[in-house]
Amino acid sequence: MNPAPLLQLEDISKSFGGVHALKGVSFYLKAGEIHALLGENGAGKSTLIKVLGGIHIPEVGQILIDGKPAVIRGVGDADECGVRIIHQELSLAPNLSVAENIYLGRESATFGILDRKTMFRQAGELVEQLGLNEIADVRADVSCLCVAHQQLVEIARALSSRARILVLDEPTSSLSDGETEALFETLDRLRSEGVGIIYISHRLEEIIRLADRITVLRDGESVGTQPRGDLGRDQLISWMVGRDISDHFHRPPASSGEVVLEVKGLHSDQVNDVSFDLRKGEVLGFAGLVGAGRSELAKAIFGLEAGVTGKILVEGRRVLIRGPRDALDAGIVLVPEDRKAEGLVMNHSVAFNAALPWVADWIKGIFPDLRKRNSIVDRMIGNFRVRVSDPELPVETLSGGNQQKVLVGRWMEHRPKVIILDEPTRGVDVGAREEIFTLIGRLVQEGMAVMLISSDLEEVLGISHRIAVYKDQSIRRIGDVSEFSAESIMRDLTGSVLGTAESFVRMRH
Amino acid sequence: MNTLKRVAPLLIAIVLLLLLFRICVPNFLHPENLLDLTQQISINAILAFGMTLVILSGGIDLSVGALLALVGTTTVYFLTAGQTALGLCLAVPAGLVVAALFGLGNGVCASRTAMPPFIITLATMLIARGAALRFNEGRPMHVPDTQVLFLALGNGRLFGVIPVPVVVMLLLFAATSLLLHRTRFGQHLYAIGGNREAARFTGIPVARVEMLVYVLCSVLAGAAGMIHASQLYSAEPASGVMFELHAIAAAVVGGTSFTGGRGTMYGTLLGAIIIGILDKGLNQAGVHFSFQYIIKGLVILGAVYIDVRRRK
Question: Domain range spanning residue A498?
């Protein structure tokens, strides 16, 4: 008879403010195996791990360790159960030393008095034993280390006490090949010692190299678990991509007219010599990985970046863009990625936000013309079917999709020629996504040119007329959508031996 | 080595200031004058120790000056009521309990609610000030002459040489630096100030540590309040105005980072000494009090600027 698996998660559900992050996920981990968790950004991997680590408490479901129900209601509980987690975002105290971080929360002390000498000695031994020579100076402040070495401190911390279940969330994202290999050797050793390891990575090569079994999560649900067996890279990709792409996208009919925006040799710290044109009535999709520099490109075009060289032409005339005002005057509009931080004044009303860019139109000197303001607001609400009972309600009370409509709709008062949408569907639900696509369709039909930045490949492939693959701050390939497939873009983006499927699979939260 | 490097500029500043005032004030370095200086520093230093703990956690406590007055009046009230040894046994614990309760209030609000510490302690500052003014209609309350022990707290001298407030200050310095630099609590405090989320993820009881920090700060303010009342032979409900700002200045000049997570107890002690030398020196040199403010302001600005630059 098989003994009970080391860890079982049964029917775990967790939601945040009505959004279901996990919908009844079950999965088990055996002692001495490396179990890879694959899935798109927002598929629920990090949430699942936080449930295991006691940071989130699930509404439904139970966790069994060695077949016995375990109560994990806090970080301390998880720690006692032998669960060690290396979170994706670094969780180090930068003002403390390497050794202090390794033993943070588990300091050796007698009557509260720290035994620093022992701590430094043990940390030194541990680091040596793990072969992490880069952080051999355990007295150095963590803030003096580069990110990769900080990652090593996290790893050393997780392994500093006896771990039974080790969870690594994207541990290699900032490691060099050599460091990665050293980590893998450590993981192999731990596996042979009977530690159960959950390994999350977008790098398929790593999963092929390490994993015994693989579970794929999608939209908060487990799609299935398979032994790694002979699954190759391509099979993994298609398994992750899953459903048929572009089924539920309605690409607006192409009505490409004359060139409206020409970007020539745009260059700055963050943009590496980018040139492209955008035509009237088309959607140009920018595909790429998070951090490839697409938002920076958008900001450079909109005049938000300093030290930009190169030419921008609108309808054939060169325009000088020194700031957002110049861009707006030239007919270029940017709808930023982060609605909360860069887009809307969340605690103010819908009307306030909608009329904000046009203050000069309705306040002349000291005379605000409220009738004019209200007509601007009403037009926006009517044209874009914003669902709000009263325009004076704070915009934060609206759904994500309706917020996005306010953000896009408010620019339509003075018909822009070019509209740049940076991740317009991030953090909105499926229904709102559809509405945003419809919105994009309308913009295009009315003759505007849309530059769409999205890390959701399905989306880019589904609604763009042309696609630019963006990597390392420049365009790698640009062409008609028919020349692209998810797989081919993936290859462009990952290129090297270690591929990452991140963008591919980034989707709705 | 690292420590020495960090405090070197402060030590140099102290030496330079002492030499400067030696030139302006002939008997500035006379032992008796220096002892007097240390005595004057004690109260601000004690407040600054508590303030350092709070600032390290990423907070601020504006209520300590008013609390100092309230603890003074409370203590003297009980001293007068009891007159004898009984009064003393009642008064000191009563004063400290009042301080601890205010600290608990600040701490609970800061750690369990989303209210910013600046506002919380601004409010409790007003409450403490109001409460202090309830005593004796806001007029000074004389310490009974029979309370010899209490009066010794502010005016006595150990072995006839070292002022008692300095002894108390040094003991509290030893205790708080031990707490901060040698205990688990101190470690957790640095972690919280450096990266709150990280502290939470590693299972540190963030709320508890934060609460304790405010309680400690208030209790230290209470101790300072008693010394202050003793030194003045009376409790003045209106005293302690701007004391919190001097304490913040001492901590910051001593290298405590306002965003939390960086700073040391000995740095704060040196910061308090610098501010104390400036105070006394400018006074004795006969600089008009208006200029004293301006000079102190500029010194603080300069010290923090240098500290920020060095950190880059």
Answer: 245-331+417-509
